[in-house]
Inverse folding.
């Protein structure tokens, strides 16, 4: 039987449930997968979309494809790290609804990191996952 990732949001920490993430994710022993950062690159080599929402959608789709390859889903993500260029509250406000739609109600621990640049100059967002694999 699979051990789900347990989510904790102690009252001694800020309430993160309102924004859709957990302060702590507890993972029972089992197999783990570490998914490299997924960006807005198409598998068939089509050009990278220009806008942040479209880039977030494609990065999430690529993260979803990685999860599917593992036989996992958003509920199995222990921690998600989101790297974003020019991180501002406004840009975060544009990106988070797309990320929340991808998570489909799962609320992994999330870390948002503002960066000067990513692997290619056109990239604005990258999503890295640590996943507890289902049994």
């Amino acid at each position: 039987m699979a051990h789900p990732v347990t989510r904790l949001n102690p009252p001694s920490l800020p309430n993160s449930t309102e924004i859709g993430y957990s302060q702590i994710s507890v993972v029972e022993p089992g197999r783990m997968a570490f998914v490299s950062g997924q960006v807005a690159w198409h598998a068939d080599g089509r050009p990278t979309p220009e806008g942040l929402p479209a880039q977030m959608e494609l990065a999430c789709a690529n993260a979803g494809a990685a999860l599917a390859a593992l036989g996992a889903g958003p509920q199995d993500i222990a921690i998600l790290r989101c790297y974003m260029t020019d991180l501002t509250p406004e840009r975060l406000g544009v990106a988070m609804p797309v990320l929340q739609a991808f998570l489909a109600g799962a609320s992994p621990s999330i870390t948002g990191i503002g960066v000067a640049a990513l692997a290619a100059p056109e990239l604005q967002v990258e999503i890295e996952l640590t996943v507890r694999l289902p049994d």
